[in-house]
Amino acid sequence: MSRDATQPVPALPSATIVMLRDSERGPEILMVKRRQGDAYGDSYTFPGGVVDANESDARALCEGRTADEADTILSVTGGGLDYYSAAIRELFEETSILLARDPGGDWPKYSAELQELRTKVDKADLAWSDFLHEQRLHIACDALHYFAYWETPRPLPKRWSTRFFMAAMPSEQDARHDGAELTDSRWLTATAALHCGRDGSMKIPHPTLKTLQELGEMNSVDTLIDWARSEARKGITKVCPVILTKDGKKRIVMPGDPDFPEQNEAG
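Request: output the structure for the sequence above.
Response:
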């Protein structure tokens, strides 16, 4: 068995959110389908995207986490709040869910005006920080619960270094996929999503699949968030899968697998 050896491209800093809501069937997760041709195109994933270069402009509008707290939680030496900002911005652009609070501490409610502004932010016609300032909103960093860190295998032509958060769905809002980057959205239990992955009705990338398997054991949103808090207290270890080739076939190998290389430098 040989390991693919190619010079890795840089992994782009990114963030994703597992949105949760309780239901009679158990906790449901918002799954979104990415348009064909994009990264993970035609696949169901969680909302999220790359940390923008100007994400730092919104740091002053972050509440619920100080810069030092965010850096400590994510084990970075600076810019931790940018991941929180990116996660919440991407969530808003892609699904209209807005995890930001007004001066009274309330979530914004759906309106046609808010959806028009969402489109402007998405198209970069309105800066994220300007939108927040004009609407008198602050990013609710305390609504995000960090629980996992994945990096794309080295040989792939596009790579991401992704922080995984989870958050409870505000009762005053609805998920409305944008119809551009996202072509579908569904609320499903982890068990139901995994079933759709097995029967082929939903294409699910490896990190998303592994996350669903891990979350499927819990029976409420509160239980899931308590688990995420526990994981963060213990410290999050970056997961760097490796692609191995045997008999001309490639497979993804996870840390802990007997075939996982002892020396695996992620870059």
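The chain has a mean pLDDT of 89.
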